[in-house]
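dumping this here so i dont lose it
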């Protein structure tokens, strides 16, 4: 029987390694070390159930689990990242297209403001008409031009 350094590895060594990987995951950005921590914790639990498991087999189990978990985790995390794609992050006005809001003051020369919730947005008529529209008239947003809502009178 061998009496080397690795023969003294017991379950709590793997659990301590798992805790170290999880702690590093908190400090280091990215999603990678958590999978190594899960693999190490799994080997620790296996070693708890089978205390005489050879250290070489422990390393093989750890390596196999680590590779598998990283592969699976990256695929799942990648799908979640794609689902959270914020295409309108810096285009807040786009969500107002198709909705109607009242004018906040009279629109003169085809320009004015519309009241969206508790905020007034700059607005201009979609047509080139320079007509005046009374305060409080309902306007439908048809497009967004920078920070200006392009509107037309709601019919």
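and the seq i came up w/
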């Amino acid at each position: 029987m061998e009496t080397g350094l690795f023969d003294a590895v017991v379950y709590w060594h793997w659990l301590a390694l798992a805790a170290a990987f999880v702690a590093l995951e908190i400090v280091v950005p990215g999603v990678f070390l958590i999978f190594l921590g899960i693999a190490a914790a799994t080997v620790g639990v296996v070693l708890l159930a089978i205390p005489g498991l050879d250290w070489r087999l422990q390393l093989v189990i750890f390596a196999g689990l680590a590779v598998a978990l990283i592969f699976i985790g990256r695929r799942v995390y990648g799908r979640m990242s794609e689902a959270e794609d914020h295409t309108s992050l810096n285009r807040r006005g786009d969500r107002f297209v198709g909705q109607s809001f009242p004018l906040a003051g009279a629109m003169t020369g085809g320009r004015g403001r519309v009241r969206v919730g508790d905020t007034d947005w700059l607005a201009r008529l979609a047509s080139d008409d320079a007509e005046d529209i009374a305060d409080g008239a309902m306007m439908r947003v048809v497009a967004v031009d920078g920070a200006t809502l392009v509107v037309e009178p709601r019919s």
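The mean pLDDT is 86.
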